[in-house]
Design brief:
The protein is an alpha/beta fold. The chain has a 7-stranded parallel sheet with strand order 5-6-4-7-8-3-9, sandwiched between helices. The relative contact order is 0.10. The longest helix has 23 residues, at 367-389. Strand 16 (498-499) and strand 17 form a beta hairpin. It is built from 28 helices and 17 strands. It starts with 9 loop residues before the first strand and ends in an 8-residue tail after the last helix. 46% of the residues lie in helices and 12% in strands. The protein binds adenosine-5'-diphosphate and zinc ion (ZN). Zinc ion is lined by residues 393-395, 410-411, 414, 416-417.
């Protein structure tokens, strides 16, 4: 039974490219933009390729040097990402190496020798390495014809990740006037795009912009009522699968990871405050599939590239849709169905806003610049909040934010289109109760106190102010504290209530509150318990015809191989390849070669073991 098609791939017209693709990668098709990007590279035409995470950028610079038999150079900002790529290239027998600061003198000169002998097809280099060493001379001597700049938005200060060392790449055009330059990024704004082209002096570049929609991702936004309980519930849908849980603070990542571990999950925290060794250990354990869950801070750019992440869970609000797109982009990079859940509470908006103001005040920017910075960051926050609150298709909302229209009526892959968002009956009446309570306490108290009054709690504060004598006392006694606070936050989100700034924010009324009170405005509130996630079509399709038992056996075999080789598991095989095998159940090397992701090198290395596993035997080499 054939598996689901890879996202919009097409057969390859050029036989030389098709051959290389099948022989080395075991792929039989290219995504449309990949085909164009590869064409440009082979023709030596500059290009600017904009593709979302998981779009398949790396193939665009990995494949051309095999066809043209050249040594190409890739500039990449993160050592961890370079290493991962070199590892996964090694798994297919592809000659590549990475030059970075963490190498010993000996390793470095070994790479220089390989380079001189023309043995490498790709050389990965950190930008600061490229400009500070005699490397440039060597590359010039070798006659390097092609440079790929990964994460090219790092060159622009309009981008979200400006790196001053990228600025020096402007010299490539002068030093290598006959070489072509190929810039790759996932950041789409036209301003950043133009800046990249200008700074790198691209000549009539082929500008190739991909679709930002990720059809295999299911997006859900769930009102946050109980961080830990909800996290456990959502992780329960992904037992034994790779998951990333994002938190805002380091402390949160540690306490949540400890809590998950206590529940028997294989979870570890990951943040910039841990020492390098600890971080490295966690990263490796995740890559080799000995842990399933990483609980990380959003502030930290993880060098984690595992392609079979099935869940990205945000327990707090990300600070922009750009950040959200990037972080959720780490899910389902293998093209298989994956879930992205955002636990949303407007309380996060207020924490972020005060954080933004605080860090601007502590910076050495002048007053005007501070105001500008705050303005732009707050605008990003509001875009994020609007996304979370809107009761409309998430795929459509994200696409449109990134400047692309989304045609489909229903995506079939978000909480809104799946009809999962449950609204509360009698929401207008409940809203009126809450608003009148805010009026009764004279707009002088915060969310917690207002909620306690509504619940009829006997706190010290309530007794002191005599709020137990108010007519609104205990009006929502049937709900628990978290649920009531959540409803108050939903009203704040919809601007049906207002809130003051400062350290002790107070809930106040606005014009819209009075409209609700007068019955001139009806209110929709979501069930604070959250709702049940349904199975999506994409997920069902991805499992179509797959023998799950065999798939799990293949996975544990992959884990053992990864452990023995000291390599990330996904570089050995990705999930899509394993599912393809567990679907086709090949009984001969020829049949195995037809499975997705099996090229000649993998067939030679693992063919016998896989055929044994499919036949239900223990592989001979174990
Ligand atoms: P990016 O660098 O844009 O984030 P990657 O290059 O890591 O994306 O590719 C994402 C995933 O898509 C990888 O698992 C890769 O193996 C797979 N992939 C890329 N191109 C193809 C293709 N033409 N056919 C099948 N799978 C592909
Ligand atoms: Zn939708």
């Amino acid at each position: 039974m054939p598996g689901p098609a890879d996202t919009h791939t097409r057969p390859v017209a050029d036989p030389a490219i098709a051959e290389v693709l099948a022989k080395w990668w075991g792929f039989d098709a290219l995504r449309p933009l990949q085909a164009d990007a590869i064409r440009a590279a082979i023709d030596g035409r500059d290009s600017l390729v904009v593709m979302p995470t998981g779009g398949g950028k790396s193939l665009c610079y990995q494949l051309p040097p095999l066809v043209s038999e050249t040594t190409d150079v890739v500039i990449s900002p993160l050592v961890a990402l370079m290493k991962d790529q070199v590892d996964s290239l090694e798994a297919i027998g592809y000659p590549a190496a990475a030059l970075h600061g963490a190498l010993s003198q000996e390793e470095r000169s070994q790479i220089r020798d390989q380079l001189a002998a023309g043995e490498l097809r790709l050389l990965f280099v950190a930008p600061e390495r490229l400009v500070n060493t005699g490397l440039l001379d060597q590359l010039a001597q070798l006659g390097v014809k092609r440079f790929a700049i990964d994460e090219a938005h790092c060159i622009s200060q309009w981008g979200h990740d400006f790196r001053p060392e990228y600025r020096q790449l402007a010299m490539l055009r002068d030093r290598f006037p006959t070489a072509s330059i190929h810039a790759f990024t996932a950041t789409a704004t036209p301003q950043v795009r133009n800046d990249i082209a200008r700074q790198l002096s691209l000549r009539d570049p082929a500008v190739l912009v991909g679709t930002f929609d990720r059809p295999n991702l299911v997006y859900r936004v769930v009102p946050r009522t109980d961080r830990i309980a909800q996290t456990l519930q959502i992780l329960g849908r992904h037992k034994g699968e790779a998951s990333i849980v994002y938190c805002i603070s380091r402390k949160e990542t540690e306490s949540l990871a400890a809590r998950l571990a206590a529940e028997g999950l294989l979870a570890r925290p990951y943040h910039a405050g841990l020492d390098a060794k600890e971080r490295h250990k966690t990263q490796e354990a995740f890559a080799r599939e000995t842990i399933d869950v990483v609980v990380a801070t959003v502030a930290f750019g993880m060098g984690i590239d595992r392609s079979d992440v099935r869940l990205v869970l945000h327990t707090s609000l990300p600070k922009s849709l750009e950040a959200y797109q990037q972080e959720t982009g780490r899910a389902g990079r293998d093209g298989l169905a994956a879930e992205c859940v955002l636990l949303y509470s407007s309380a996060d908006m207020f924490s972020w806003e005060s954080l933004v103001r605080k860090s601007a005040a502590e910076s050495d920017l002048d007053q005007d610049e501070q105001e500008q910075l705050i303005g732009s960051q707050v605008a990003h926050l509001h875009a994020m909040r609007r996304y979370a609150q809107a009761a409309r298709c998430r795929h459509a909302a994200l696409s449109e934010y990134f400047g692309q229209s989304y045609e489909a009526e229903s995506c079939g892959a978000c909480d809104v289109c799946l009809g999962e968002t449950e609204s509360l009956p009698e929401a207008t009446v409940i809203a009126q109760k809450i608003i009148s309570c805010v009026a009764r306490v004279q707009e002088r108290f915060g969310v917690r106190h207002v909620s306690e009054v509504l619940r009829g709690a006997k706190t010290e504060g309530i007794t002191r102010y005599g709020h137990d004598r108010l007519s609104t006392f205990g009006l929502l006694a049937q709900l628990d504290q978290r649920a009531v606070e959540n409803l108050v936050h939903q009203l704040l989100d919809q601007e049906l209530l207002a809130r003051t700034g400062g350290d002790r924010p107070v809930v106040t009324l606005n014009e819209r509150s009075w409209e609700v009170m007068r019955g001139q405005r009806s209110v929709v509130l979501l069930e604070p318990r959250g709702s049940k996630a349904k199975t999506t079509k994409a997920d069902a399709d991805d499992w179509q015809g797959v023998d799950r038992e065999l798939f799990e056996r293949l996975r544990s075999w992959r884990r053992r191989v990864a452990e023995a080789r000291g390599k990330p598991a996904w570089t050995i095989f990705d999930d899509k390849a394993l599912r393809s095998i567990a679907r086709e159940k090949p009984t001969s090397p020829a049949a195995l070669l037809r499975c997705r992701g099996i090229g000649e090198k993998r067939l030679a290395d693992f063919g016998p073991a896989i055929l044994d596993l499919v036949a239900g035997r223990t592989p001979a080499d174990e």
